[in-house]
């Protein structure tokens, strides 16, 4: 009899809300592992890039010799999901960041960091999310970015429904790489993680 195997999903653990993603992934039936070294990165089926401080994480990727190995795994088709700072890291171009920020080119998109401005540092809203048909998703934005421009082959999964930022792209997907401006890991709603695990990671990992 074949043993059921769960996909091993790394959570980039250099800085940010690592624990929340580890918990959400475990609840989705994956094996979450923290990733800080190239050998750990090489052993995972997929990677989650957490929220935190994108310029700090970018710097630490260089310090820990993870930048090129991570770019290579993304080029090779490793599934990845980034929330907030993770979205910024996965971009091909970042606006309003430090000049030495190193993009990972995981998704062909231009992302504006801290895009919602100081007045609306943090806010929550309900939004429709393509692929999640059983009701809206509660989206928590914390000094969040938005996606300003996308290339061919990038699918928009969610936009801001109303208010001054109405229509802004806040969730996107290109192949098996997904990014959200907001933090589903803090609400206890597992559907965004489940979408990643079940439709992007399992088919590719064969488990
Ligand atoms: N503003 C942060 C950055 O630039 C992202 C905030 C977050 O991840 N909650 O990286």
Automatic annotation (TrEMBL):
<dbReference type="InterPro" id="IPR021196">
    <property type="entry name" value="PdxT/SNO_CS"/>
</dbReference>
<feature type="binding site">
    <location>
        <begin position="142"/>
        <end position="143"/>
    </location>
    <ligand>
        <name>L-glutamine</name>
    </ligand>
</feature>
<keyword id="KW-0378">Hydrolase</keyword>
<dbReference type="GO" id="GO:0005829">
    <property type="term" value="C:cytosol"/>
</dbReference>
<dbReference type="GO" id="GO:0016740">
    <property type="term" value="F:transferase activity"/>
</dbReference>
<protein>
    <recommendedName>
        <fullName>Pyridoxal 5'-phosphate synthase subunit PdxT</fullName>
        <ecNumber>4.3.3.6</ecNumber>
        <ecNumber>3.5.1.2</ecNumber>
    </recommendedName>
</protein>
<keyword id="KW-0315">Glutamine amidotransferase</keyword>
<feature type="active site" description="Charge relay system">
    <location>
        <position position="183"/>
    </location>
</feature>
<dbReference type="InterPro" id="IPR029062">
    <property type="entry name" value="Class_I_gatase-like"/>
</dbReference>
<dbReference type="GO" id="GO:0036381">
    <property type="term" value="F:pyridoxal 5'-phosphate synthase (glutamine hydrolysing) activity"/>
</dbReference>
<dbReference type="GO" id="GO:0004359">
    <property type="term" value="F:glutaminase activity"/>
</dbReference>
<keyword id="KW-0456">Lyase</keyword>
<dbReference type="GO" id="GO:0008614">
    <property type="term" value="P:pyridoxine metabolic process"/>
</dbReference>
<comment type="pathway">
    <text>Cofactor biosynthesis; pyridoxal 5'-phosphate biosynthesis.</text>
</comment>
<comment type="similarity">
    <text>Belongs to the glutaminase PdxT/SNO family.</text>
</comment>
<comment type="subunit">
    <text>In the presence of PdxS, forms a dodecamer of heterodimers. Only shows activity in the heterodimer.</text>
</comment>
<comment type="function">
    <text>Catalyzes the hydrolysis of glutamine to glutamate and ammonia as part of the biosynthesis of pyridoxal 5'-phosphate. The resulting ammonia molecule is channeled to the active site of PdxS.</text>
</comment>
<dbReference type="GO" id="GO:1903600">
    <property type="term" value="C:glutaminase complex"/>
</dbReference>
<feature type="active site" description="Charge relay system">
    <location>
        <position position="185"/>
    </location>
</feature>
<feature type="binding site">
    <location>
        <position position="113"/>
    </location>
    <ligand>
        <name>L-glutamine</name>
    </ligand>
</feature>
<feature type="binding site">
    <location>
        <begin position="52"/>
        <end position="54"/>
    </location>
    <ligand>
        <name>L-glutamine</name>
    </ligand>
</feature>
<dbReference type="GO" id="GO:0006543">
    <property type="term" value="P:L-glutamine catabolic process"/>
</dbReference>
<keyword id="KW-0808">Transferase</keyword>
<keyword id="KW-0663">Pyridoxal phosphate</keyword>
<dbReference type="InterPro" id="IPR002161">
    <property type="entry name" value="PdxT/SNO"/>
</dbReference>
<feature type="active site" description="Nucleophile">
    <location>
        <position position="84"/>
    </location>
</feature>
<dbReference type="Pfam" id="PF01174">
    <property type="entry name" value="SNO"/>
</dbReference>
<dbReference type="GO" id="GO:0042823">
    <property type="term" value="P:pyridoxal phosphate biosynthetic process"/>
</dbReference>
